[in-house]
Amino acid sequence: MLRVIIADDHPIVRIGQRVVIEANGRCKVVGEADGPDALLRLLSTTPCDVLVTDFAMPGGQQADGYGLLSLLARQYPDLPVILVTMFANVATLRASLAHGARAIVAKSASARELPQAINAVIGGQTFASECLRVQLVEAGTGDQSQLPQLSGKEREVVRMLASGLTVSQIAARVNRSISTISKQKSTAMQRLCISTDVDLFAYARNCGMVP
């Protein structure tokens, strides 16, 4: 019986994950956590074979997102970590794998794909949601480990956008045309395989560009 710990700050999500994980009779959820602090306490006392965790669980002393993944990789290097997130894009996939996750599952597809992800990581493989695999094909790369590379100017535009400035305000601040800033924003989103401002702001936050 595979022992699984799940972490998500929404109780209804944890209930659904428990049902899905235990449905085949091969896995048992041995603990639940509602944030990074509770998760680290749980891991220190409860042995498990797989960790299924949300990406964004703000609050508490410990960081969520990539900071939490890095900490887990250092403290529990042999524990397969499956990331379940609403921020399912290629940029998050690449960065999450680089920070130690073994699988990334879109929340919209977790009921169908979570058991597949567990089977994959237990077998020593990585796993990505189908929607992410499609994005990788569209981006013209199968390399999931390489972090997306932004130019210095693109990174600065993304940081200022995520800080709340508009394209016009950024253009005035850095003494460039609005069309230049718009193009840099567009190019950055294409490089990151991100299609919405919400995902762009989430990426900036999770990468530490903004508090």
UniProtKB/TrEMBL annotation:
It holds the Pfam family Response_reg. GO terms for biological process: phosphorelay signal transduction system; regulation of DNA-templated transcription. InterPro entries: CheY-like_superfamily, NreC/VraR/RcsB-like_REC, Sig_transdc_resp-reg_C-effctor, Sig_transdc_resp-reg_receiver, Tscrpt_reg_LuxR_C, WalR-like, WH-like_DNA-bd_sf. Residues 3-122 form the Response regulatory domain. One of its GO terms (molecular function) is DNA binding. Residues 143-208 form the HTH luxR-type domain. This is Response regulator. The modification 4-aspartylphosphate is found at D54. It comes from the Bacteria. The keyword Phosphoprotein applies. Keywords: DNA-binding, Phosphoprotein. The keyword Aminoacyl-tRNA synthetase does not apply.
